[in-house]
Amino acid sequence: MSYVDEVIEKVIAKNPGEPEFHQAVKEVLESLRPVVEANEDLYRREALLERITEPDRQIKFRVPWVDDKGQVQVNTGYRVQFNNAIGPYKGGLRLHPSVNIGIIKFLGFEQIFKNSLTSLPIGGGKGGSDFDPKGKSDREVMAFCQSFMNELYKYIGADEDVPAGDIGTGAREIGYMFGQYKKIRGVYEGVLTGKGLSYGGSLARTEATGYGLLYLTEEMLKCNGKEIAGKTIAVSGAGNVAIYAIQKAQQLGGKPVTCSDSTGWIYDPEGIDVALLKEVKEVKRARLTEYAAARPSAQYHEGRGVWTVKCDIALPCATQNELNLDDAKTLVANGCFAVAEGANMPTTLEATKYLQENKVLFAPGKAANAGGVATSALEMSQNSERLSWSFEEVDSKLKGIMVNIFHNLDDAAKKYGHEGDYVVGANIAGFEKVANAMIAQGVC
Ligand code: NDP
Ligand code: 2IT
C-alpha cells in the first residue's frame, strides 16, 4: 500500500466519527501523491504524514454562562493547535451549534496549508464552540465570550496562538474576547485579529476574505483568457465572506445575483443590493426575508437552491459541503466555467472531481479564501510595530498576496505534471514549506 493510503487509513482508524476531518485529510494527502512519491524514503523515516495529521494539541473545555432569564447555560469550547512549524498557531473561532471536535480539526488542518500559502509566518489552528450567537442578546453574547476567554487565555498569546473570527464570530465577539483577555492577563497585545479599528484592528480585515477571493478569481480567469466583467455570479452565504465577495465582484464589473442563509436564499436578477444586504445582516442581524421585503426585484425561496441559478461563476461562501455532486452537475449543465471557494471545504470531494473533469476552473478554499488570514497576519505585523496602515496599503498588499498565491499554485501544479489542477497545486505549494520546516526543526 502506498504511504499516502496507509496514513489515510490510520487517520480514519484513529479519529472515528470525524467525517469532515477524514474528508480534509483525504483531499490533501491524495493530491500530495506526486511530492510524497518523490520523497517517499525521507518522509516515511520522518513519519512526516503521521506527524502533520496529528494536532500538536487539542484543548476542550466547559463554557458556563448565565442567560437573560438567570438560567445557567453550558457550552463546550475547543482550540486545536495543529501545527506551528512556520509561525504561531493562527486561525479563527467558529461559533455555531454544529461545532464539534471533528469540524474544528478539519478546519485546523486546512489552515496549516492555507496559512503557508499566504507566504506569511503563521502556523495552523482553529477553535470555537457549539454556542449559537443567533437570537442572543448582546449581554448574553458577552457573557459567553467572557466565559470562553476565562479558559482560552491560558493557551493563547501574540507569539503563541492568535485566534480570529469565523462563522458566528465577528467584530462584536472579538471585542468582548479581547476585553476579557486584557482584563485577565493585564497585557495589551495582538492576541486576536479582526479587532475594532480603535483597539488594534486593521483596515480592510473586514473586507479581506471576500475581496481576496475575487482577486484570486480574477487572476485565475485572466490566466485562462477570461474575465469577471459582464459575468453572472452565484454566491451562497450572506455573512462576512459573501457580503464582501459580492461587493468586490460588482466593483470588477460582475453581476452577483444570489445569496443565502441557513433558512433560505435570494435570487435577485437585477443584482444583489449590497447596501441593503449589509443593513439586513450586519446591522439588524435579520433573515433574508427582510431583504426580499425591501427589494421588489428579489425572489426569496425557502431551503437551499442557489446552485440551480444559471451562472458563469459560482462562489460558495457559507459552509462546508454545501455544493454536492448534483449541484455540480447543475452548474456544469448551466454553463458555469469557474468555481472559487470562499468558504472552507464547501465542495464535496465528488463534486470537486466532477467540476474538474468537466473543465471548470476550480480554486480551492485554502487558496481562494486565504485573504482573510493573510490580512490577519498583516494586522499582527501592525500590532507588533504599533502602527496602522492605510486601507489602500493593506488592500494592495492583500491583492499582491492573492495574485502570488495563484501563481504559486499554478506553478506547483505544472511542476508536478498536473497543469490546471489548482487543488493539487495548492496542496503541494502549501505543504512543501511546512514539510521542510518540520524536517529542519527535528523530531518535536
Ligand atoms: P458568517 O457567520 O459571517 O456567515 C456565514 C453565512 O453562512 C451565513 O449567511 C450563514 O447563515 C450561512 N451558514 C452558516 N452555516 C450554515 C449552514 N450549516 N447551512 C447553511 N448556511 C449556513 O461567517 P463567514 O462569512 O465568516 O464564514 C463563511 C465561510 O467562510 C465559513 O466556511 C468560514 O470558515 C469561511 N472563512 C471565513 C473567513 C473569515 O475571515 N471570516 C476566512 C476564510 C474562510 P445564517 O446566518 O442563517 O447562519
Ligand atoms: O478560515 C479562516 O481562514 C478564517 N476564519 C480566518 C482566520 C484568521 O486568523 O483570520
- Using only C-alpha atoms, the radius of gyration works out to 21 Å
Percentage beta strand = 5-15%
Shape category: globular
Strand order of the largest sheet: 1-2-4-3-5
Largest sheet: 5 strands, mixed
Number of helices: 18
Distance between the termini: 27 Å
Average pLDDT across residues?
98
Q: Helix fraction?
A: 40-55%
Detail the poorly predicted runs.
Answer: none
Characterize the structure shown.
This protein is an alpha/beta fold. The chain contains 18 helices and 13 strands. The chain has helices spanning 3-14, 19-31, 33-38, 40-46, 48-52, 101-117, 138-152, 171-185, 205-222, 240-251, 274-283, 289-294, 325-333, 349-357, 365-368, 370-385, 391-415, 422-440; strands spanning 57-66, 72-83, 89-95, 123-129, 161-164, 232-235, 255-256, 258-260, 264-267, 299-302, 313-315, 338-340, 361-363. The strands form three sheets. The protein has a five-stranded mixed β-sheet with strand order 1-2-4-3-5. Strands 7-6-11-12-13 form a five-stranded parallel β-sheet, sandwiched between helices. A three-stranded antiparallel β-sheet has the order 8-9-10. Helix 1 (3-14) runs antiparallel to helix 2 and helix 2 packs parallel to helix 6. It is globular, with a radius of gyration of 21 Å. The two termini are 27 Å apart. Residues 96, 98, 165-168, 209, 237-242, 261-263, 317-319, 342-344, 369, 372 line the site of NADPH dihydro-nicotinamide-adenine-dinucleotide phosphate.
